[in-house]
Amino acid sequence: MIIGLWIIHVVYGENPKILKMHYSPYIIIILLSLLPSMMMAAYNYDQSLISSLYEQRDIYYYMLYFLLHRMNVRPKFLEKLILYISIIYLLFYLLQYIMYPRIIFDVSIKESRDTLRIALPGAGFALVNYFLCLHKAFRSKYWSLLLINILTFIVFILLGGRQVVFMLIFVTILYVLLSKYVRSKLFIIILGVLGVVSLFFAFENIFLSLVHDTQKTQQAGTENIRLIGINYLLHNAFPNNISYIFGNGTPNINSPYGQFMHILKESKGIFISDIGMFGVYVYYGAFFVIASFAIIFKTFSLKIRKDRIYLKYYFITVLQATMTGIGFIQSDFIVLYCILLYLMDKSVAKKGVALNFHTYTYNKSNKLLGTLPLKSR
To answer: Of 41, 135, 238, 356, which is the most buried if we count CB atoms within 10 A?
Structure first.
């Protein structure tokens, strides 16, 4: 569909002035890394190229990055889209949580850590919107946006993911300490602590389960299931030295490769989705992983407009998620990343207005999704 839209726009659309695409080299490397990984799946496991082409379909969504540049989509439209998708996600999650055990959405639901872990797509959008609303609230004094943040925090508590909850608290504190929009930092931190304490008592069982799981993981040491999985795959999932470079490709359940991965899930409890970027490495090799990290660190190094500094705070959570998640090969996160990378390109500051974590300043005339301090590009 993305390719079709791109072709239609090339044939019938106008030729927009395309800004520098800072991430294009890395995305091209990601897309090119698919070919050798397909070859590895065919050579090592007799998996057909057609099967591999189908199984790796999520990765094709990276082409959305180029389509957005071709269509020259307005950044404000994309920010509104993020806002609306996140609100829909939060409402749908709470609806499913309240209505359980009645199933409303065809998604995985697991009872764990004294809560329901509902695998509803859209969590990434909600997390980005958290930092968007946080930044807009302090920058433009739209304090009502913090209500969305409170709702987001509650949903992430209900999700039962301790890394997400702790990172959300950590990056929020980091924003308060570094932001020049926050005048009374101590007061805000105290207010935030009181808010977290209130939520703790409201969801005490969930928090205690999160702490208990963390203690169990620390006591287990090397027996942590993620470390077991990484160690096992490192010694058993690569049939030859070349596959250590190019990966093994995406498995198809009908191939010997797919059967091997299925047995790992059933007999050893090893899930690619639980071992972070190493799981990506097993599928697509070293070049894919290097390009993924390059995208993250490129985001930190670019100097961008002060109204979109929230993008950098979100990518702090992306960096942390590489240890436990595989967002770089999941379609919903890939779509989100492409939107955010496009926004980064659109937000690169002109010479003389260098903007980063420490240099942006307050401008009370700017409003949420309203008039921007620089001419929209």
So the answer is: 41
